[in-house]
Amino acid sequence: MTEAESEKQPDAPRTYDASSIQVLEGLEAVRKRPGMYIWNTSFEGLHHLIWEVLDNSIDECMAGHAKEIEVVLHEDGSCSVTDDGRGIPTEMHKSENMPALELVMTKLHAGGKFDRDSYKVSGGLHGVGVSVVNALSTLLTVTVDRNGKTYEMAFSRGHKTGEMRLLGDTTRRGTRVRFFPDATIFDTVEFDWDTVAKRCRELAYLLGRRGLSLKLRSELLQREQVYHFPEGIAAFVSNVTANKELVHKDVIHIRQEDVPNPLAPDGEKGPLYAVEVALQYTSEYVENVFCFANNINTVEGGSHLSGFRSALTRTFNTYAKKEKLLKDSDKVPTGDDFREGLVAVINVSVPEPQFGGQTKSKLGNREVQSIVESVVAKHLEIYFEENPATAKAIFKKGLEAQRAREAARKARDLARRKSTLASGNLPKKLADCMWTDADRCELFLVEGDSAGGTAKMGRQPEFQAILPLRGKILNVEKARLDKMLAHNEIQAIISALGTGIGLEEFDLSKLRYAKVIIMTDADVDGSHIRTLLLTFFFRHMRELIERGHVYIAEPPLFRVKHKGKERYLANEEEKNEAVLSIIVDNSKLLDRKSGREFSGPDLERLNQVLGRLEKRIGRAVPIWSTVRAEDFLQRFTIDGVLPHAALVVHRKPRWSRDVAGMEQLRLQLSAELGREAKIYTGPDSLVPRDDADATAVTFQHADELAEMLEDLRALGVADGFELPSEDALDVIPRFQVANTKKSRDVLSLLRVRPTLVEFGSDHSAGGAEVQRYKGLGEMNAEQLFDTAMNPDTRSLKRVRLEDAVTADLIFSVLMGTGVEQRREFIERHALEVTNLDI
Q1: Which of 217, 670, 742, 776 shows its CA 20 to 30 Å from the CA of 134?
Q2: Contact at 8 Å (CB) between 400 and 331?
Q3: CATH assignment of the domain containing 277
Q4: Is the pLDDT of residue 384 over 90?
Q5: Is 669 inside any structural domain?
């Protein structure tokens, strides 16, 4: 890894005690208008509570006082954040006459972030921080280890429930905050692992060079992940480019601290800034730059991005002129050309950041642009002098991009002359809508001319437009802009949307439809076409996704008809429930062991419990574990409880009642082998399955499943999962499913519902007529409108971009040129598939 850097460890502040805490105002308005302090009161706002608590711990790390942070999503719905920093001060605050801990938790804008000697740089939400979390929590407890003592204080909805307590002596230090979000404030109070993991991963990259190790743990999922990247943002870039073809091998890493403000008045040093940049070029055609300011993801960029881009263009052009890399016939590449294929991470530390809006999506500090431009240009010039081969390879990439851009311009001009992309001229096959108000209009991108014709007949022409697409569109992941613009279907999409394409022309304000709806068949080809369209939007019109304009239609997969009544159902699960409701009434289940017969309300109750169990067991016992679900469930009868983990040796599980017991099982196996046992832990395991001595698996939802088994015990069939041994002869199945027209023996309770579904889907056995729709063209116009296009009855999924890094990685692997990476991805995740349509 190559670096060009100048760094200095942050100066230790003078003190961090009660006198460091400054107060600006109280908490009264937070519960009345929470949206003023967090994004909203739905999913994003809920997780913002974690970010605010986490920011305080991160500030300790940035100040050089913390190395380890743990975030725990507890089974009871609470979240805790623990660090090994200095601990929130607990001394009495002189002017407020209360412990500093209480002050920080109950007063808005009370904290050390307003005291420059305590924190040089802070990432918290303008300092409102943890007091807002307190105001929006039904219960919040803070435990502080400081100066050899442990203190604790509890709060509820912003008010203390008691005085600060001294719990005893301690040798550790740090702060632990645990809070329960208030369900009367938030639409949802369930934290999402992937959302929290994304933020933890970002922070671990950004502060990896400061030694941060960040652990995330979920008690409910029984899942744990440690994020530790000593190479910092250089590792971030390497992760993004891992599955891409590289223009140069090394990540260019620039870092400089203690940078003065060039706009400060003469003679005044002012606060100091820090700039860190990592970049690498790939052979791809799009730019991927991730911007951070004080560890906050500024997704809309800002002055630091502008400075970086200016430095890049200026440095490359200066180097090209100096080295005479341009021929007389060559046009000078633009900044866009030099950013083609670029992957970069920018992180700046700004003493007094100005963010665009409360959500911190854009950095507004004017001085940061010149600071970043100066630092990046200086270090890039040094790097190019020391690494001329890399500099020339990158410049050659930019020159090729300029030539391709010129070819694309000619292709665009040619297409315009043919009236395909001309302003105001729409594709001939577009059935446009009557209204011109974009906010009320919808465009359906429909697979095939046949389905397109049906959609045109069934639509509401006032606000619904139809664009049929013939065949599979071009995979833009593998195509340059000029080739893409020559593709007829892509031309039609660009023309219909009206926004233009690319950095030079894309204008969201010209979008002709507020909803762009992808409507394809429910088969493999339809899924492929949908993926190709999403690849196009992600790579060339990403803002459509970011602003929530792209949707996926969910036309029904099934039509269930019984006794003259029809129902259209979106998925397999809905279809199963529909046919079960039909067949259960005239079916029975015989338990040969007890002689009991289940029918009517008893069978319905048993069916409901088995339905709940069915939804959980697939996640609880993953396919890759090789553990049979029946063997796992039968442990409830044998041991009285369900195991939480197992070590599978030669396909035979060694059960453990808790996850901690797995270590003892591992040590036991190592002793048997006379060496360290090699353990396979799933698709992302560092030990390949073929090299492993055993497989370790933890069972999610074990406690929840145990409650369902208690319900089955009340019905007398909790032991109904025992399977005969593989060498057993003349086995008599324990259960029989039957109705007046059909019967079948089944070995286990897990086979009862699938058998009932089969009966319910068989018209000759007293069930319903079930039709599965593979193509949109199989429906008539009225059916298609009622089920997929009518705003009152349809189901749409909005496409959201929550993790651009992961999305970029998946598009590169699945749609790019790397066959080997794609093969590895499919092999790794094949066993996670639960409903394969072949």
Answers
A1: 217
A2: no
A3: 3.30.230.10
A4: yes
A5: no
Query: Is 639 an active-site residue?
Result: no
- Judged against a pLDDT cut of 80, whether residue 111 lies above it is answered with no
**Lookup: tokens for 288:** 């991927």
Is 525 assigned a catalytic role? yes
Residues 401, 427 within the same domain: no
Helix, strand or coil, per DSSP, at residue 549? coil
With cut-offs at 50, 70 and 90, classify the pLDDT of residue 811: low
7 pLDDT more than 50: no
Say yes or no: 393 and 483 in one domain. no
Of 84, 102, 367, 447, which residue is the catalytic one? 447
* Catalytic-labelled residue, pool 102, 182, 337, 521: 521
| pLDDT digits 0-9 by tens, 34-92 | 877 787 888 888 999 999 999 889 989 988 899 999 999 988 889 999 999 999 998 88
Q: What is the CA radius of gyration of the chain?
A: 31
504 with 543, same domain: the answer is: yes
Say whether both 56 and 80 belong to one domain. yes
CA distance to 28, 240, 470, per residue, from 300 (Å): 32, 19, 36
Asked, for residue 709, whether it belongs to a domain, the answer is: yes
Residue 470: CATH number of its domain:
3.40.50.670
The confidence band for 835, taking pLDDT boundaries of 50, 70 and 90, is low
Shared domain for 223 and 241, answered yes or no, is no
Q: Is 786 a catalytic residue?
A: no
Alpha carbon distance 459, 461 (integer Å): 6
- The candidate with the shortest Cα–Cα distance to 443, out of 515, 379, 520, 381, is 515
Domain extent, residue 832, equals 810-838
Tell me whether residue 521 is one of the annotated catalytic residues: yes
Tell me the C-alpha distance between 239 and 229, whole Å: 11
Say whether both 725 and 581 belong to one domain.
Answer: yes
Q: How many CB atoms lie within 10 A of CB 338?
A: 25
Indicate which residue of 523, 554, 614, 745 is catalytic.
523
The answer to whether residues 145 and 174 touch, using CB atoms and an 8 Å cutoff, is yes
Residue 78 lies in a domain: yes
pLDDT in tens, 172-213: 999 999 999 998 899 989 999 989 999 999 999 999 999 999
Same domain, 223 and 237: no
pLDDT digits (tens, 9 = 90+) for 494-510: 999 998 887 667 889 99
Total domains, the chain: 5
Sign of the CA dihedral 716, 721, 722, 724? positive
Picking from 357, 392, 412, the residue at the C-terminal end of a domain is 412
Classify residue 657: in a domain, yes or no. no
Residue 670 vs residue 11, higher pLDDT: 670
Please report which confidence band the pLDDT of residue 821 belongs to, taking 50, 70 and 90 as the band edges: low
CA 718 to CA 741: how far, in whole Å? Answer: 28
**610 and 463 part of one domain:** no
Burial of 823 (0-12, 13-18, 19+ CB in 10 A): exposed
Partners of residue 72 on adjacent β-strands = 80, 217
Tokens encoding 60: 């300790």
User: pLDDT tens for residues 266-313?
Assistant: 667 778 899 999 999 998 888 889 999 988 888 888 999 999 999 999
Answer whether residue 418 shows pLDDT above 70.
no
Do the beta carbons of residue 256 and residue 274 sit within 8 Å? yes
Of 356, 382, 412, at which residue does a domain stop? 412
